[in-house]
Write a structure and sequence with these properties.
The chain is built from 21 helices and seven strands. It is mainly alpha-helical. The radius of gyration is 24 Å and the shape is globular. The strands form three sheets. A three-stranded antiparallel beta sheet has the order 2-4-3. A two-stranded antiparallel ribbon has the order 1-7. It has a two-stranded antiparallel sheet with strand order 5-6. Helix 16 runs antiparallel to helix 21.
């Protein structure tokens, strides 16, 4: 074991058995309950309770005040710059440098917990985007035409999120293959790289094209935010439909155009909203709402599914699992055997293995989509009008894309379970590191020698991880039911299509439980 790491035991075998049994029992109970309800699919999915936070006038006033976002962003920008400095010039021991601890344990480990409640909240504070906008506009908050921008349109061939998916694969490779999370200087280089690829597009392309199409953090949190309990929407769709100026999209003297080219009249999902709140400033009718809502409200909206989003969802599922697997003795033994058998380098074996895991999971999902189509049948009858009927062809591609969204809750909650192990066993180290952020023997706040116990005990972490995986599974089954009954208008076909889908979800959730039952090598132990 590397001296910079420690091993965290996995959940006990009895808890693994009980959890797997709970997955099976809940799957069939929930399946039966959903079948008995037989509710009509609601493609728009707009029927749910909302609480508009902007009815609290002080909050609305703050969001309308242009300098407010600058003052909220400024601490994050300063911390970001300090992390770069600490990574470049501080101690290169990861447990004693604030760069690695804040970036990979607290920020990267905690951001998913923020997404589940607040959606794309991080984008409001994002230091990369803040610096890019300040450079582009040559102002911190005043509304003025961007001074340094060529206003080029984002290439049509790249108007998808495959670049973001590629960046996510690259980051995972750098993390697990190259060990960037344990290298302060490389962490600083990565931060500078992220800043560069955010600023350059801001100087070339119109609006926030990079944020919409290529930002790995924004696209991952964008898909996960479909589950979030908050949303930014129009208060009254009728008001938006009657609007002729569409200031939320085009901007006006009070605010900039929507950076991701959204129009509140037709915005139904969290995916591409970056919560910049420019629409709050520009809407002449005060028709913008920031709502608290039920979890997974957007995942119930079985509309606007996209192929690129489906592939990213599958990659997120694969890499979340791979991240956990790569930190276990099973992976260590497997890669050691592969190195000996092939005579390849450790990095080469890791890279092939990582790529193989991604391809394998997508292939397994593709196989199950074929089974779904085979089980349900390819033809679906519907009655579009009184006295009329027609038969629709349910294509394989449609099944592949639609059902991928049902795996998002499973990916999200395994991701949360995995991150909980890091965040709640290592996060408390910030108290000591804050006194000596560069690892130079300082004691600025008198806490450098304060070694706190983990935030949660090991049994508490085990129960939290199991609970999260079970919650993700339950939501996955629930969402897949709605997708099936929207995809197949024929209820008998919808029912049959759910059988392979349910088997796949049970298998994956049990695999997730098995992963957290294995010992895990933690990455920045002190």
């Amino acid at each position: 074991m590397n001296e910079m790491t420690s091993t965290m035991p996995g959940i006990p075998q009895w808890l693994l058995a009980v959890s797997a049994a709970a997955i099976l029992l809940l799957s069939f109970v929930l399946f039966e309950w959903l079948q008995r309800r037989q509710t009509v699919a609601d493609p728009g999915g707009e029927r749910y309770l909302r609480l508009n936070l902007l009815k609290f006038s002080p909050l609305k006033s703050m969001l309308k005040w242009r300098p407010f976002q600058f003052f909220m962003r400024l601490p994050f920008v300063l911390l970001f710059l300090f992390i770069i400095w600490a990574g470049l010039y501080g101690s290169q021991f990861p447990g004693g440098n604030i760069a690695t601890l804040v970036t990979w344990t607290i920020w990267w480990g905690g951001i998913i917990f923020v997404v589940i409640f607040l959606g794309k909240f991080w984008c409001y504070f994002c230091p990369w985007l803040a610096i890019a906008e300040w450079v582009q506009r040559l102002t911190f908050w005043k509304r003025k035409k961007p001074a340094l921008n060529l206003q080029r349109k984002w290439p049509k061939a790249l108007r998808n999120i495959y670049i973001a998916a590629g960046f996510f694969v690259l980051l995972t490779w750098l993390d697990l293959g190259f060990g960037i999370t344990m290298k302060p200087r490389e962490t600083a280089y990565f931060a500078l790289f992220m800043l560069l690829i955010t600023v350059l597009p801001a100087l070339i392309f119109e609006k926030g094209s990079f944020c919409r199409y290529a930002c790995l953090v924004g696209r991952i949190s964008g898909l996960y935010s479909l589950f979030a309990s908050t949303e930014l929407r129009s208060s009254d769709k009728g008001v938006c439909r009657a609007c002729r100026t569409h200031d939320c999209y085009a901007g006006n003297e009070f605010g900039y155009p929507c950076p991701t080219s959204l129009d509140l009249a037709v915005t139904h999902l969290n995916t591409y909203c970056v919560l910049c709140t420019e629409c709050v400033k520009t809407c002449p009718y005060d028709n913008v709402a920031v709502n608290i809502r039920p979890f997974a409200a957007d995942l119930r909206k079985t509309m606007h599914q996209r192929t690129d989003e489906a592939y990213l969802a599958l990659i997120m599922l694969a890499l979340a699992s791979f991240h956990g697997l790569s930190m276990t003795p099973v992976w260590t033994r497997a890669t050691a055997w592969a190195q000996e058998w092939t005579n390849f380098s450790k990095l080469a074996v890791f890279s092939v293995g990582m790529g193989g895991i991604i391809i394998l999971l997508i292939a397994i999902y593709a196989l199950f989509c074929w089974l779904i189509r085979l089980s349900a049948g390819t033809q679906a009858s519907q009655t579009p009008g009184k006295g009329d009927s027609e038969t629709l062809e349910i294509t394989y591609k449609r099944l592949f894309v639609n059902f991928a969204y049902s795996l998002l809750p499973i990916a999200l909650f395994y991701h949360l379970a995995h991150n909980a192990a890091h965040l709640f066993t290592e996060g408390q180290k910030i108290v000591a590191v804050a006194s000596d952020p560069l690892g130079r023997g300082w004691d600025l706040m008198g806490t450098a020698d304060l070694h706190l116990a983990p935030i949660l005990t090991m049994p508490q972490i085990w129960y939290a991880q199991v609970t999260l995986i079970i919650i993700g599974h339950v939501y996955g089954v629930y969402i897949s039911h709605g997708i099936a009954y929207h995809t197949f208008p024929d209820s008998r076909q919808a029912f049959r299509s759910l059988i392979p889908s349910l088997i796949l979800m049970i298998a994956y959730s049990c695999f997730s439980l098995w992963l957290i039952s294995l010992p895990m090598e933690m990455r920045t132990a002190m």
